[in-house]
Design a protein that fits this description.
about 35% strand; 7 helices; globular; alpha+beta
């Protein structure tokens, strides 16, 4: 007799996973989705298998707002291995070149200063960026190298945490689209030594930090003890990634029209920009944008029960 299809639960919210080493972001997402037995899930931008740390996972209605976390600033700690370049820019690639490292801390600090602020960066071949529908990493594995356009990113923080040649530990705060592997390779190239990422840990993704993460082991333990429902304690509200946005509460009358796609007015509304919206009971019902006429137009709505 064929086994029946698993009936998934309607789960809404965000879970901040401390992604373990060795798993792709999608594999981590699918594992947590299975543990939660959730209908719908999505992550907010890939972390390399080598990387660990903050990976916000969105479930149910929260997936409607994952793009805003994808666009958020990020924070990392990385261990840079000077004097060795690899095919992938990290420790998982094959070694291309080796150089003896004779470098003083002051000389390193001078070069790091050049990488703070707005810089131009070429994305690595081993990335999830697509060319003609194919991820670049697939082309790279097939031995292809295609030209990538440089783009502007912002390095808000680049601090030297430890220097024990050939290893350098850095703290980085950066804008969306920044590749730490490219940053490390560029620093190594400028030093004339080459470099690759030996370790990478994401410490921040938008408003979320390591203090809010939960490990895969903790999730598996909770599941073993109490089933899928036991993992609901780790879920944050669907709008928790947008808490820096202005919050507006609509009247019962306005909520009705807004949830039916109609722009409405609200007291204390900002003059422009994106806002979080609650109904008269305090329930989060979606996000809107304030137009030139002062009315709040719905942009993404939370499905009503």
């Amino acid at each position: 007799m064929a086994q029946g299809k698993r009936i998934r639960r309607k789960v809404d919210g965000i879970l901040i996973l401390d992604k373990p080493h060795g798993l792709t972001s999608n594999a981590a997402l699918q594992k947590v989705r299975w543990l939660l037995n959730a209908e719908k899930a999505g992550h907010t931008g890939s972390l390399d298998p080598l990387a660990t740390g903050v990976l916000p996972l969105c479930f149910g209605e929260a997936t409607k707002f994952s793009q805003y976390l994808l666009d958020a600033d990020k924070g990392y700690e990385t261990l840079m291995h000077l004097g060795v370049t690899t095919t992938t820019g990290d420790a998982e690639g094959e070694v291309l070149e080796r150089h003896e490292v004779q470098l003083g801390r002051d000389a390193l600090e001078v070069v790091l200063a050049d990488f703070r602020g707005e810089i131009s960066q070429v994305p690595p071949m081993y990335s999830a960026l697509k060319r003609d529908g194919q991820p670049l990493y697939k082309l790279a594995r097939a031995g292809e190298v295609v030209e990538r356009e440089a783009r502007s990113v912002t390095i808000a923080r680049l601090d030297l945490l430890a220097f024990e040649p050939p290893f350098v530990r850095l703290a980085v705060a950066c804008s969306k689209g920044t590749y730490i592997r490219s940053l490390v390779e560029d620093i190594g190239r400028t030093l004339g030594l080459g470099a690759h990422v030996a370790e990478l840990r994401r410490t921040q993704a938008g408003p979320f930090g390591l203090a809010q993460t939960v490990s895969l082991e903790a999730l598996e333990q909770a599941h073993a003890q109490g089933g899928s429902e036991a993992l609901d304690q780790f879920l944050l509200p669907a709008d928790s990634g947008l808490e820096h946005w202005p919050l507006l509460q609509l009247s019962e009358h306005s909520s009705y029209y807004w949830l039916h796609g109609q722009p409405v007015r609200a007291p204390q509304s900002p003059k422009f920009g994106m806002v979080r919206v609650q109904d008269h009971t305090g329930r989060f019902i979606g996000i809107g944008e304030v137009g030139d006429d002062g009315r709040i137009a719905p942009r993404r709505l939370i499905r009503s029960e």
